[in-house]
Amino acid sequence: MRKMIIVSLLFGLTIVLSACGGSAPMQEITSSNKAVNIVVTSDPSPAMMGDVQLLLTITDKDGNSIEGAAVNVAADHTDMSGMGMNGLATDQGGGKYSIKANFNESGNWMLTVKVAKDTLDYKEDIEFKIQ
Questions:
Q1: CB neighbours of 57 closer than 8 A, spacing ≥ 6?
Q2: pTM here?
Q3: Which range of residues forms the domain containing residue 104?
Q4: For a designed S-S bond to 71, which of 29, 79, 97, 98 qualifies (C-beta 3.0 to 4.6 A apart)?
């Protein structure tokens, strides 16, 4: 009786697994569908407590520089509430923008970058660590 139950379960499992497998190959998504790509670097690097120059390189989904945009950068300490700052980054040309920030605490910060130009209105949160 036990053998019959095990054989029945294995047979049922085989049917279920074969029904779940399709003939179409799995699709792997490797590219992002973001309208804007933002890369943040800092001076000094790695970023440390005190004055830090943030340089943002901003491109569209095709890798073309986004120039002449209004770029607002807000920074909030994720571990301590009430510690934050924000301001408008300066256009450096070629899709590069910079802003000076004073990080008075080390740890994890969240940068919220808003990019606005013509019909583009984009916002992205970026994790940023201060040593």
A1: 38, 39, 41, 95, 96
A2: 0.74
A3: 36-130
A4: 97
